[in-house]
Design brief:
CATH superfamily of the largest domain: Gcn5-related N-acetyltransferase (GNAT)
Strand order of the largest sheet: 1-2-3-4-5-7-6
Strand content: 35-45%
Helix content: 25-40%
Number of helices: 3
Distance between the termini: 36 Å
Bound molecules: coenzyme A
CATH class of the largest domain: Alpha Beta
Radius of gyration: 17 Å
CATH topology of the largest domain: Aminopeptidase
Structural class: alpha+beta
Largest sheet: 7 strands, mixed
Shape: globular
Length: about 130
């Protein structure tokens, strides 16, 4: 799998030189949106799952909440990765969100505090 990091994070899975599955994390409107697609003849072989898992791992490292919209028939599939329905429907699609775990939020807050302490600031942060 190739991971490219620009303003988006893109993951592409290849069979030899042939790209067969794609995914991206796309910051837009203050949210990070996840998208994934698998080439038709390669569907249902676990490639979509691999892409979504890798992108969720990236999001976890960054402490980012992930958002997506999907047709009704994929809601249960996305639940497996920790996405939950938001009760919003957009263009006949369900909106889902994958929240940052409490543990990860706490780790990020500690990282921020340590950075500020190292920079000589006195600070306290409630999480
Ligand atoms: C949706 C998609 C990304 C899933 O990737 P994938 O590699 O096919 O999925 P995986 O092999 O990892 O997982 C398979 C499971 O996903 C779910 N799934 C995949 N496509 C589905 C569909 N059209 N309807 C319902 N469930 C579906 C099922 O639970 C399926 O399990 P099964 O193979 O036992 O039926 C891929 O099928 C795809 O690109 N589909 C066409 C485009 C599309 O629907 N995009 C919407 C993205 S929001």
């Amino acid at each position: 799998m190739k991971i490219e990091i620009t303003s988006k994070i893109k993951a592409t899975l290849y069979e030899g030189y042939l790209p067969i599955a794609w995914g991206h994390l796309d910051p837009e409107g203050g949210k990070t949106w996840l998208g994934v697609a698998v080439a038709y003849t390669y569907e249902h072989k676990g490639y979509g799952t691999r892409i979504v898992k890798v992108l969720c791992e990236y999001a976890d490292k960054g402490g980012w909440e992930l958002w997506l919209t999907c047709p009704d028939n994929l809601v249960e599939w996305y639940r497996k990765f920790g996405f939950e329905l938001t009760c919003q429907r957009i263009n006949n699609h369900e909106e889902m969100v994958r929240k940052v775990s409490k543990e990860r939020r706490a780790e990020k807050a500690i990282e921020r505090c340590n950075k500020d302490i190292n920079a000589g600031k006195k600070m306290c942060e409630w999480i």
